[in-house]
Sequence to fold (566 residues):
Amino acid sequence: MKLCLNVVVVYIIVFFPRAFAQGRHVLNDTLMNHNVIVDDTNKIIPWPNSSEPFELLIESAWSWWKSDNIPHDKYTGHPLYYFFPSYKPGTPTGNIWPATPASMSGWLAQTAAAMFAYNGDISPVTDIALPLCKYVLANGTTPPNYVWANMPYASSDPGAPYFQGANSSRFGGHGRGDGIHVIEPDKSAEAAYGFVILYNITDDKELLTAATAIADTLAIHVRNTPLSNGTSSPWPFRVNALNGSVVEEYTSNVVEQMLVLNQLMYGLVDLTTPLTLCNGTTVPRGVAYRFAHQVALEWQRDYPEQNGRWTACCEDVPVDTTLTNYNSVQPINAAQYLITTRAPDWKQRSEAIFDFVKKNLIYTDNLPGKHSPAIQYGAECVSEQKEYLIKMGVHTGRYAVALSMYSQAMGGNQTLEEIAYRCYSWASYCTQSDGVNLVGPGEQDVWFRIQLAGGILQMIHALSDTARTPPPAPTNHLLLSLPFGVGSVAKKVQYKSAGSVEYTTSGVPSTDRLRLSFTPTTVSAGTTKLPQKDNDQCASPGCWTFDSKTGVLVVTHTIATDVSIE
Fold:
């Protein structure tokens, strides 16, 4: 955050100090073009033959992205991910399927910020993520005079240089691609979350203004009970932005909306600015934001968490009138949010969500339709949605992140640690030798968002969650949480020498996790030397802990944003 997040628990990448089984045995079996590698327990481990396999995967996947491997649109000169959701390697153009400009800009912003923290190179932010976000703002946002104003479009016709929703009839109708002038409010919020992240790094006011305008629209249009209920969500899944007519009433996803409202409520914007709500009443912006957040959190508790209607997730899904095409994306994200913010009864609620995912989207072997085995070489593998039960790396990785978060929040659980490690390991096979990240077995297309989420962001989690190599680690890395969280981001990073790291976060309080190639002796926040503790109970101005077995440093700082490590 730009300023203090006083009431939000900061989510950090977690670490489990445990010894996994050793050994490396190559099987004749192949998984996503790699020979399967198992340890002495005959369970899957990452495929790279390296003491730091996840570090290798991160750098390989990002190198592929930034090395101009992605073809450029012949009309605009921009990379294909501006205008297409995916492409087949070796072909010059993208697949004819609805583009996803809003969520693409959000995910690229998160990835660029994470890589900046990871290696200190600012160019992913300034040269890759920022231009896309600016393009979306200039060419793909609803006008100020629309009923749903200033909202980035979730979908677009493939190849179209201007975004205004996709013509659904091109993709079989039934709402796929949304339709012209139709938005998905949760995807607009996803873009806004990315805009805030980039603003925190660059101080670009246009991004903050855009994110605030999106949040204002969300706050103005939130629907409280009884308008939100078991068949209508606080924000509709699809709505005609021009005239306000609802195309699809229900989505279980309210996490992105809560994230951006949380981001903006603490010091970034003027909370006294009046907003006129849909019912005609005028209230201060802060009141509207807090109310919208409360409505969303309570609705999630009372409806999808109770009835299991985790439906309507993707831009290309048809309208689900039966609310039965449940998915894994939204419940896992919801569990992460509950754990992150320590919401009321977060333990029991998160466990119930994990049980739902296991029952409906992991152990699917006996369900009808096309699917793949639930347990593969000891890994619990996750499907995206009921209507397509093929196991996918990005969803399996997301599940691993959530289990890791939960175990750390509970003080450590070896069973969950083991499951998460095997899930990360299985997901690693989606990354090919050249850095391309595939969806999963049987899928050879490159989906740009999955390259970012599965190939890079989740592997950054894996690097920290499964760290087991003692110092010296190969290199120093600041591992800040960006795939999911409400904490500050790295604003400046300097890896000054093999034994020195300096960085600045966008706000405090902040808890930061690093992997070091040296043993630190001094950690300072501003001019204050922080005390070393043997636990994570810190008083102001902060403290630090270091695990000498793994080289993982955790720094908590509550007053100064500048941190130096020697």
Notes: The chain is about 35% helix and 15% strand. The longest strand covers residues 490-497.
